[in-house]
Amino acid sequence: MISTILKRLFVVLAVSQLFSFSLRAEIVSATIQTPSPAETGYFKLGTTKNSAGHEINVNSRSLLFDSQPVFPVMGEMHYSRVPQAEWRDELLKMKAGGVDIVATYVFWIHHEEIEGQWDWNGPRDLKKFLQTCNDVGLKVIVRCGPWCHGEVRNGGFPDWVVAHKDWKLRSTDTNFLAAVKILYAQIAEQMHGELWKDGGPVIGIQVDNEFGGSPNYLMALKKMAIATGLDVPLYIKTGWPAIKTPVPLGELLPLFGAYPDGFWTRGIQPMEGSSWENFIFKHTRTDTGVGNDTLGNRKSGDTSGTEKYPYLTCEIGGGMPASYHRRINYDPRDVESVAFCQLGSGSSLMGYYMFHGGQNPEGKLSTLQES
User: Fold this and answer.
1) CA atoms of 142 and 318, how far apart (whole Å)
2) Which of 295, 306, 304, 299 minimizes the C-alpha distance to 244?
3) S-S: 252 plus which of 106, 163, 237, 317, CB 3.0-4.6 Å?
4) Cβ(111)–Cβ(186) under 8 Å?
5) Are 115 and 160 in contact (CB under 8 A)?
6) With contact defined as beta carbons under 8 Å apart, do 247 and 211 qualify?
7) Longest C-alpha distance within the chain, in Å?
8) What is the reported pLDDT for 86?
9) How far is CA 316 from the centre of its chain?
10) What predicted TM-score, i.e. pTM, was given to this entire model?
């Protein structure tokens, strides 16, 4: 009896303290200002209207569909890592999961492992993959490389490219770009008739990946893509790493990523680097932990002019931790929390990497694995 009375007394005291606290609480006011209009007019896009008259455009805040802001969801699936017979069912599952856009890499080494011998068959059939996406009602962004990383051997470069010690890779070196021009022409042939302007699903292409050098290289790739017929509304680069000299304004949309933890790192401590920043609302967009196995540890901060672009993401990480030695055990709430914080920080495109798993096809010269 005494124990029961004491428990009830404790509850009464706790409630009274809570009540007295609420009486002492200060009144907090907030001023809500009307945001300034989104900026536009400086984006260098390709053909924005398709054959049905629908238009994809962009301003400093959002992607636009028929002049209205939209909030699509993008999910990564690498066609050459999934059996062709499974594509349709897996894409339908992605669509049922809320995905509007499929992102996919073109791994050069998957298609020209031996110089001059191109393979676009079976799971490597990019054109068939794009047609399947169109059939199920999904738009596509193709990440063309030539360097992708993407957990593949040489970051996607064939061994014969790496063997050219006289070439400066990922630069405006004329010999290197001559080989990339052939790659882009091959990709353009696969995409013929599948571009947005032709009624196809491809609304954008990404040039290279995780590049932090001279913007002249990225601009050379964009120019080359257009010359080979890759005319799409959206031309894209990854927004990381931050670079000192920005790409000319409006030429390439930066897309960002955010991971709950850094599984690339060579260390063994949890939450290394700035991974914790992805669990807070913030003005900066660059996750300095992404790809630090190749990029190293970087300081927080965005490239100058980033605020001129909408906050779009291509790599909200959730499906990648089992690909590296750390084997991080994510809780689904980790991914949900990171996604929520990107939304609260202004993101208007959620891109998940990986949304769909897979494995490298068998190579003729190697396993095609990264490690």
Assistant:
1) 20
2) 304
3) 237
4) yes
5) yes
6) no
7) 90
8) 98
9) 7
10) 0.89
Output phi, psi for 41, to 5 deg. 95, -10
| Residues paired with residue 142 on neighbouring β-strands, in sequence order | 104, 205
Closest Cα to residue 259, out of 273, 275, 248, 246? Answer: 275
Report the amino acid identity of residue 159. Answer: D
d(CA 353, CA 317) in angstroms, rounded, equals: 5
Please report which residue ranges of the chain form alpha helices under DSSP H.
Answer: 2-24, 87-96, 108-111, 126-136, 159-162, 174-191, 215-227, 292-295, 332-344
Tokens of 75: 């999910």
Q: How far apart are CA 75 and CA 73, in angstroms?
A: 7
Prior bond to 201 cis, omega within 30? Answer: no
Distance CA 267, CA 292 (A): 11
Contact predicate 184/228, CB 8 Å? yes
Specify the DSSP element, H or E, that contains 236.
strand 234-238
**Contact assessment for residue 302 and residue 239, using Cβ atoms and an 8 Å cutoff:** yes
192-195, Cβ contacts within 8 angstroms, sequence gap of 24 or more: 192/127, 192/229, 194/127, 194/130, 194/131, 194/134, 195/230, 195/231, 195/232
Burial class from Cβ neighbours inside 10 Å (0-12, 13-18, 19+) for residue 1 reads exposed
Q: What is the mean pLDDT of each run of 10 residues along the chain (371 residues)?
A: 46 42 68 92 98 97 98 98 98 98 98 98 98 98 97 97 98 98 98 98 98 97 98 97 93 94 74 80 87 72 94 89 73 92 96 94 94 78
Tell me how far apart the terminal alpha carbons of the chain are, to the nearest angstrom.
68
Q: Which of 255, 219, 257 is nearest to 237 (CA)?
A: 255
Other C-beta atoms closer than 10 Å to the C-beta of 36 total 8
Nearest to 77 by CA among 90, 58, 64: 90
Note the pLDDT of residue 273. Answer: 64
Q: Mind listing the domains of the chain with CATH numbers?
A: 51-353 (3.20.20.80)
- How is residue 148 written in tokens? 């992708």
What pLDDT sits at residue 11?
A: 42
Task: Report whether the peptide linkage leading into residue 74 is cis, meaning its omega lies within 30 degrees of zero.
Answer: no
- Supply the pLDDT for residue 25: 65
